[in-house]
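Quick start: what a row looks like.
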Amino acid sequence: MAAPSAVTVASSPADRAAHGRRARGHAPRSGHGVFEAAPDRPDVVDVLERQSVTRVPDLVPIRYGRMLESPFRFYRGAAAVMAADLGSLPGTGLQVQLCGDAHLLNFGLLASPERHLVFDINDFDETFPGPFEWDVKRLAASLAVAGRNNGFTQKEQDDAVRTCVRAYRERMREFAGMRTLDIWYARDDADRMRGLLAASMDEECRRRTAEAATRARSRTHLRAFAKLTRLTPEGRRIAADPPLLTPLRELRELRGETSPDEEDKELQALLESYARTLPADRRHLLGHYRLVDMARKVVGVGSVGNRCWILLLLGRDDDDPLLLQAKEAQESVLAAHTGGERYDNQGHRVVAGQRLIQAASDIFLGWTHVAGLDGRHRDFYVRQLWDWKGSPRPETWDPDLLSLSGQVCGAALARAHARSGDSVAIAAYLGAGDRFDRALTGFAQAYADRTERDFEALREAVRSGRIVAAHL
């Protein structure tokens, strides 16, 4: 994971600020406004196909089908493509623990362990150390692509990007003046978000923001329990909805492997391996539950094809559930393009990165390493399913809401980076003016153009029969 640099540990704030300003020499702020694909840029379909090799073959066409719904959906699934593009650009060298896939929909509302509604990054599959600007560029370009998807003018798109990057820059400057523990304890709860946005929101924005908070609070584990399970003669079990939700018992039947004793042993081994990664108090809490069922679930866009399991555990009785999600973790798409500590277990990488940059992580967050149905060992990270989790729906937004979302996402990203990186050096690099903001606006438009061309390349690959897409 990202660690404080020698400059951070050994130097005064003035020296750290000077270090940040020196980074402008090899990575000028205005230079971030340009994006040109490298001459040896790999074919975009080849990049996606290389990822597909390790995924569930039956699910890969679903991934492509979801990416083909729009350029914005394509962008969400193409983190590996952008990682290669970012890796070819001059970097600031100002390292943080990156989210790795900081697009608009990987921020949202979720529950803190204290049962407060907070706004934070909510996806860490690609987390890895790297230059802070990679996350900012991924977020900025997502706003431009989403704005185009909604038919907004270029000015409206640019306003959203500038608002986002300005919020990042200004909040990083705030963190540069704060004590270390104050940075660590900072969080964006719902009340703070309302106060932050009050001056910017009209009555319609306030109404929709309140509705989003209400929806997030309604997405509890009990609601997921009611939606995803049914009562059977054997008790509560996960309801089948193949291929999007397929219980393990049905997958085994398809392969002629129907031994319940062997199945129970494997499930118990998975749970015990995961439990050993939890703190002692959480492990004690988990011990009050018994594992009764498991199902493979299709989630997201870019993640489709990676193995994802829903685990149903019961406590006192059939009305005392705990639903966990175990999601396969593969090497970060950033790993090939930047230095950083390598982990023997990629689930551990995800969990360690999440704990470092998320202000309030799930109490059941852990990892495991198990044998899959094909006999291969695979890494997973585990968390609760649906714990007050609310995600934005940008296809319903107007330009003002896109800008407001950019503002809160940019501020949240700055908080995440300040926890793991040198806020003084980054703030000094960014400066008090808007040069970086304006540059990122140019980058976002250039990369949105690139995304549209890549989207067309994927469509052509389907039309030609090179790959197969399924729309589910």
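That is the whole record. The longest helix spans residues 435-463. The chain has 19 helices and twelve strands.
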